[in-house]
Amino acid sequence: MLEYLPDLTPQLLALCAFALLAGFIDSVVGGGGLIQVPALFVLMPGVPPATLLGTNKLCSIWGTSAAAWQYLRRVPVEWRATLPACALAFACSLLGARTATLIPPGQLRPLVLVLLLAVLAHTLWKKDLGSLHAPRLAGRPELAAALSLGGIIGFYDGFFGPGTGSFLIFAFAGLFGFSFLAASASAKLVNVVTNAAAVLWFGSAGHILYGVALCMAVFNVAGALVGARMAIRHGSGFIRTLYIAVVGLLILKFCADLLQGRG
């Protein structure tokens, strides 16, 4: 992969700045891929898409892990829903990452745009969504929902990725009845697992620029630590506000890509 790294210093500095911002946003409400993935594609245009996606995953897993650790220390985690989701998410993320090396992920853009619009509409309509922590599932329904969530989101994150954290937070808040703070904690743990699976696949296939990813990871972790602490300190109201803003930006990004013919 060294052939892709001639005189990379200016690009790398810019990528590290984007990684810092992505780590902050992603640790609170997800959506860091909105910032980091386009930055990699714009600043490293000669690199194969699968390699850019793999580099993004290796960078992101460090920031996501740092944020997850912060949540684990300070926020009670609903393990009955989170662990089954993590287990299936790992396997399906591996499958998604493998599929990404065979099929152009951009074909998903129209479907993801529709889903994001539905997520935003529901969040705005249900003004109490995520304001209280009132888990509503138990037993087999909870297990079935957790496995379904892990399978679908795991595959999506391995295959494409942008918006994964936001989808997870919405699912844990809307489907399971978690507060936005508890949903963010569970979402981070599932996201660590999906990133780990994708890194394993992309790494084994030679689709990671390790030097770039690890430099970016330092800044991604810094942003994630600051974001997680702010989310824990300010609670679900802060997370909801930022969540709506990030989902709105994701929608604008997908619309722009479709209008420019990148779908």
From TrEMBL:
Q: How does it sit in the membrane?
A: Multi-pass membrane protein
The membrane spanning regions, by residue number, are: 12-35, 108-125, 168-187, 207-226, 238-259
Localization per record? Cell membrane
Record keywords, A-Z: Cell membrane, Membrane, Transmembrane, Transmembrane helix, Transport
UniProt GO cellular component terms: plasma membrane
Pfam families given for it? TauE
Q: Does the keyword Transport apply?
A: yes
Keyword hit for Ubl conjugation:
no
PANTHER family documented for this protein: MEMBRANE TRANSPORTER PROTEIN YFCA-RELATED, TRANSMEMBRANE PROTEIN YFCA
Q: Which family does it belong to?
A: Belongs to the 4-toluene sulfonate uptake permease (TSUP) (TC 2.A.102) family.
Q: What is this protein called?
A: Probable membrane transporter protein
